[in-house]
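Hey, can you fold this one?
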Amino acid sequence: MPQGGTIEGNAADDVFLNAGVMEEILSLKPWKIISSKRDELIKFFQLRTDRAVSPRTNIPHDFYVLESAGWVNVIPLTPEGDVILIRQYRHGIQDFTLEIPGGIIEPGDTPEGAASRELFEETGYREKEMVFLGSVHANPAILNNTCYTYLAKDVYPAGRQELDDKEDIEVIIKPLKDIPELIKKGEITHSLILAAFYRFFMEYDKKLS
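Sure. Predicted structure:
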């Protein structure tokens, strides 16, 4: 900055541009819905079509929302420091993915109850304690639900898997310390699983340290 304390040239332009952007961000308003329609799809989803008006342009647009119950993800950790992972087929990409147990929150379930149920059904393990790590919105552009992440502490084998007809799940045990490398190498690619491990390593684990 010059001695006189003024900002010259592009620097001044940048300041005013950034101020304008910030002013616009702070003035953003939610869109007003003027109509809404639901279409039945499958057991877990409904398609909702909303017509909403932009508060900035006053122009209406259609939005398509998949309505779904909430989901849960569970990081099962053994007393020895191993993570119980699952490998299963995902038809959307027509390939296998390495994940943690998880699933939908059934009617009458709590997120924690669903986490315990999915853990046992998919792995045959049970936990001594369930710790809530946080929640995320999987894709707020088209999905209206929330995904809850839990840490299942001191898990132990308690029975056989209880898989439904569309599930073929292989249980894989990996040391917790190997998880970052599995992510780095692209062996774990599911975005919600990455979000779950972020919660664990960047928030929960750091807090313990």
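The chain has two domains: 29-68, 70-208. Let me know if you want another pass with a different chain boundary.
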